[in-house]
Amino acid sequence: MTNNFDDVAGTWDENPIHLERSQAIAQRMMEILTLNKDMDVLEYGAGTGILSFLLSEKVGHITMMDNSKEMVRVMEGKVLDRNAMNLFPVCFNLEEEVSDQSFDLIFNQMVLHHIHDIKAIFEKFHKMLLPGGTLAIADLYPEDGSFHGEGFDGHLGFYPEQLESMLLTTGFRKVSYEECYEVKRATADGSNKLYPIFLLTASK
User: Fold this and answer.
1) What would the mean pLDDT of 190-197 be, rounded to a whole number?
2) How many domains would you assign to the chain?
3) pLDDT higher for 34 or 192?
C-alpha cells in the first residue's frame, strides 16, 4: 500500500461515508460469519480501526495492522479514549515482511485494491489463518478509474470471480461473495456516481 494515508489519518473519521460503509460491512459480517469471544482476529490495513471497533464486542482479540504510522497513532488514541482493551494497533508492512502470528479470522475493507501483488498477500493470509479460519474481503467491483482519480497506481476494482480463482489456487475453499454496499460520490456535473462494493469470504 502506498503511504499517502499518513496525510489523511487525522481527518479520516470526519468523513461520514467511512463510518456508513464500515457499518454496512460489519452488519453483513455479523450476519454471515460465526463470531465468538474466543476468536483471535486480524484487521489488515485497518486505517483508523473503524471496522474493528464495530466488531470488537463480538470477538476476543483484534490486531489492527496498518503500515501507516499516522493511522496507527490515531488508532492508539481511540483505543485509549474508549478503553478498548481487546484492540491492539500494530504498525507492520505485511507486503514486505512476514508475520508468524495466527488468527481465526482475517478481514479487510477497501485495502486489496492498494496491494500490488495479490497472490503473495493471499499466500500470507493463508499461512496466518488457523485451520478452519476465515478470510473476509470487502472491496470495489471494477470501476473506470474515477474512484481515486489520476495518479492512482493500484487496481481499479476486482471481479470477485477472479479473486475466487486465485484464492482456490492458494488453498482456500468455500468462497462466496455478494454486493454489500454502494459508495455514492458527487461528480463534476452535479450527478451522483455509485461504486458498488462486494463482501467476499473464504475458508481455510
Assistant:
1) 90
2) 1
3) 34
Q: What is the CATH classification number for the domain harbouring 187?
A: 3.40.50.150
Q: Tell whether the model's pLDDT for residue 2 goes beyond 70.
A: no
pTM: 0.93
| Domain, as residue range, for 38 | 5-203
Compute how many other C-beta atoms are within 10 angstroms of the C-beta atom of residue 53.
22
Q: What percent of the chain has pLDDT over 90?
A: 85
In the block, cell 476494482 appears at: 157
DSSP, residue by residue, 64-120: EEES-HHHHHHHHHHHHHHT-TTEEEEE--TTTS-----EEEEEEES-GGG-S-HHH
Total Cβ atoms within 10 A of residue 114: 19
Q: Inter-axis angle of helices 160-170 and 118-128, to 10 degrees?
A: 50
The radius of gyration of the chain from alpha carbons, rounded to an integer in Å, stands at 16
